[in-house]
C-alpha cells in the first residue's frame, strides 16, 4: 500500500525514538560488533547520522532555501569507513544526541512542504534527479535494514545490558 507523505515522514521520524531507546543499552553493548567482523552499534548509528547530515546539508537545506543542490553520489565505502572512525572518537551519548539532532533537522525542513515540493525533481551536484520523496523512501528502507540487524544483535545478546 502506498503511504501518504505524512505517513512517510512520520515513519522516517520514528527512528529517532528507536535510537533514543537504544541509549538504554550500555556503552559496552554499543561498542560490541553486531556479528564477527562487522560494525558496532555505535558505528551503525554514526553511519546513519552522518548520512543524514550529508543529505541535510547538501540537499534538504538547499531545497528549503532555494539554493542549488550540491549532493553527489559518493564512494560509499570511503564514507562509511570515515563514519566508523568518527564513531570511535565519540561517546554513545554524543552519537545518540547527534543522530536525533540531524534527523530532526531533516524532519523540520520537510514537514509542511506542499506535495508538489515534496515530489519535485531537482538536479543534484551530479546533474542527476533528486526528490525529497524518493530520498525519504530510500532512507526508510535503509533504517529498516539497520533496525533488523540491530534487533538480531539484541536478541542474540539479550544477556548484555
Automatic annotation (TrEMBL):
Classification via InterPro entries: DinB-like, DinB/YfiT-like
Domain spans labelled DinB-like: 22-150
Protein name from the UniProt record: DinB family protein
Phylogenetic classification of the source organism: Bacteria, Bacillati, Bacillota, Bacilli, Bacillales
Amino acid at each position: 500500500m502506498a503511504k501518504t507523505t505524512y505517513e512517510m515522514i512520520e515513519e522516517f521520524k520514528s527512528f529517532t525514538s528507536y535510537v533514543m531507546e537504544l541509549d538504554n543499552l550500555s556503552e559496552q553493548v554499543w561498542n560490541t560488533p553486531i556479528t564477527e567482523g562487522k560494525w558496532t552499534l555505535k558505528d551503525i548509528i554514526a553511519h546513519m547520522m552522518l548520512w543524514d547530515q550529508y543529505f541535510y546539508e547538501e540537499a534538504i537545506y538547499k531545497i528549503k532555501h532555494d539554493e542549488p543542490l550540491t549532493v553527489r553520489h559518493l564512494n560509499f565505502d570511503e564514507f562509511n569507513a570515515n563514519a566508523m572512525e568518527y564513531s570511535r572518537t565519540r561517546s554513545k551519548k554524543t552519537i545518540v544526541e547527534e543522530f536525533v539532532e540531524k534527523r530532526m533537522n531533516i524532519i523540520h525542513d520537510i514537514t509542511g512542504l506542499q506535495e508538489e515540493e515534496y515530489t519535485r525533481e531537482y538536479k543534484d551536484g551530479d546533474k542527476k534527479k533528486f526528490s525529497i520523496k524518493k530520498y525519504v523512501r530510500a532512507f526508510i528502507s535503509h533504517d529498516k535494514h539497520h533496525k533488523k540487524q540491530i534487533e538480531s544483535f539484541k536478541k542474540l545478546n539479550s544477556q548484555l545490558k
